[in-house]
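FAQ: What does the model actually see?

It sees only this:
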Amino acid sequence: MATGAVRVLRGLTFALGATLLAISLWVVIARFRHPVDGEWMTGAVRDGVERIRDGKQLYVAPTAEFIPFVYTPLYYWVSAFVARFVSTFVACKLVSIGATIAMGYGIVRIARHLGATPAWSRMTLILHVACYSLTILFYDIERVDAFYGAMIVIALAVLLSGEGARTTAIAGALFGLSFFAKQAGLVTFGAVVLGLLLARQRRRAAIALVSGAFVLLLVGAYLEVRTGGWFRYYCLKLPGAHGLRPQRLTLFFIEDVPKAFAFAAASVACSAPVLWKVLRGRRDEDAQPWRDVVFATILAGTMAAAFSFRAHSGGWPNVLVAWLPFGCAAFAVAATRAEERARGTTAAHVVSIGLFAAVSLQCLAAMFDPNELSPNADDLRERERFVALVRDLEREGDVLITTTGGVSKQTSAHVAALYDILRAGDHAPADLLQRLEERRFAAIFVGRPDELDCESPVCDELESAVVRNYFVAGRRHERERTGMTGYDARPRWLLRPRKHPLPHAPMSDLWRRQRIEKGFAEMKSARSPLDTEITPSDEIEDLAARELDR
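And it is asked to produce this:
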């Protein structure tokens, strides 16, 4: 009876895994069929990839036309190479999807190297699919996360595959290179060196450290010289300004761990006992295998990193990719060891039932509605209407779009990149301020009129330039669904140049004027059908002025 229960639960687990795979592929295919932004930064990421493809620098002085994000360049370089043969949209997706597949392969190899059975090693692929929704569907979009995850997973798989100096040097170089996929690669690089030291593999720790540091210094020096210091500004200085937010310190434990309970439990099971024995200084005959020590160190380090990244300003669940792939391998290892300990006892079947039940429950926790987060024909039509509106406005001059890319003929600085500069205490680009003061943009599209409010003088400087010189001329329609994941920053508000700029005034007075304009814009938007694009209303400027005077 117990054996039958194990078979039933195993079948249920595979059925749930197949279901998760099917709805995940639903989203992936829908994103290909309806090429709209899957997340608010993807359009601007493609702008950066196109710059490299066209022979331009990625890290340059900030301007109204382009500001790079605070990410290191490896994903951009690889995507730009692929974009020579296919469209940028397809190239970026192919790189992310290929990285996701490579990550799954690396997870299986890590589990096997750590002694997991073939069956439980293959089970990690189901758990890997479950990570898709836990990381808010970032594994196939135009972002650096999947590529970064593949880098650190493959690097660890290489390290665990052998004990020779050559293998260690290659792994160390890959860990060093992972920094240029995403800065968080330094966490795994440091953890692997520390793990080798704790495992008394001093020579191998030195080899990994030297090879990784060599890559870091070599590529870092190249970027420093090639970009005139702008790489260091964007990828080292600006991320340091994000800062921990006290109100976000509980996110990892309250939101993430309960959803990823199987990964969390397995990570603790594979790291805590091993590190406890190592730190207690057990005798040589009781020493832990070096692979277990290294893996335990990386698990502990990446879990701590995931907590830290979530607590930082802007830390969305996609940052869990620093930890979850290793959590997949940890579950296979923990399950194998649990079954080995229970083998031949009356608890053997109970343990197997519990393990399959845990995987099934984890799959259920990762379920999501694919219709909610995948684009459809309505989303594509809405984008086409928006592009047509922008093209019409571009007859009068350049259009600035702060929350997306790949729409206007002239690229625009993305608000997320601009906010990073302001948050660090630096002024907005001089040409942006000048063009705002001269009202040279024919229109500006923003997600929120106050989207750059950071309670800093440099933010007030930019916000004042916008409100004094541009009025709210329209409120775009907003459907309940977006077909996007992550932060909802659709270009909602249309701003047009004022006939005469407002005088310098406190921001509270300027916000009051803008709130009145927003009210008129919303009333006019409510009178037009939902499936049509708005028409800019220049009379709102005069209506708001009369209302304020009255």
